[in-house]
Amino acid sequence: MNFLSDYNVIWFILVGVLLTVYAVLEGFDLGCGILHLFSKSEDERNTITRSIGPVWDENEVWLITGGGALFAAFPHVYSSVFSGFYLAIILLMLAIVFRASGIEIRNKSENKSWRKVWDYSFGIASLLIAVLLGTALGNILHGVPIDLNKEIHISLFGLLNPFSLLFGVSTAAVFALHGNLYAIIKSDGSIESAFIKKLRYTYTLAVLCIVAVLIMCLSQPQLTENYRTHPALIIIPIFVLIIYTFLLIHILKKKYKPAFVFSTIGIVLIMTTVVTAMFPNIVFSTLVPDFNLNIYNSASSQLTLKTMLIISAIGLPLVIIYILYIYKVFRGKIKLSDKMDY
To answer: Do the domain assignments include residue 335?
Structure first.
């Protein structure tokens, strides 16, 4: 099979890339939100909100883009997952609303009670979003009861199994480390020192969670099949551990920008490990393997896939250019003395 001429494979890779970009970019601002929840001083909290204030909504674009790509390329996956996970998705949307409100509204008043309410709204919602996203991914990998009609019948509490909850906690931990490093490179002086002190906790928790997830994944036959068939693929999860080792080395050397780069590469490799384990499936069924939703039985027509690929080839570069411009404009460290809206 020539993968480069297979639109189903191309769209599987493209959706994976879009969601990986979302994990990297939204990962650091969700991580900053989690860090915000444990920040003691007003200067630390102001630095966090100012550092992600100009970019957090641009990062959300990748979730919308990934969701749109999933809807266009694999509509059966979109309809099955969004209906089966309905209550969890409603909870996720509410968390996104309260998080956005916390960022945008907290500085509209100097009243301490007002700021405290929206600070908790921002922090708790950031943590909840990370956990919910990870839990959703954990369920997709663990498997859900998909029937012959491609329908998922599961309760909200049915989604809270040990495997998916570990994924949820691990996602929050990895994002917290990612956000911690971002907060360090965006801050200065005593505020930077305060964020550096938190690294010992965020790094330790993230690595412990990554190791626990890798071990638990070994107990899932559907996730190890591709690795048994193609043993060379095992280098990907091994590289995850290597990257986080290099990350620690750079933290110890107080080289935080390279450490942030390694954190980014680590998230990319984690997502690559997930995508490699899933292929060609997108959602596993716990009822019968034949009910798995894969890149062929859940895809749009070849004409639709081809047409959407052409549209994406035109639109995606424009999105990338715009977002790169935004990051260029708001590069550098945060100065609390500067007048800003965030």
So the answer is: no
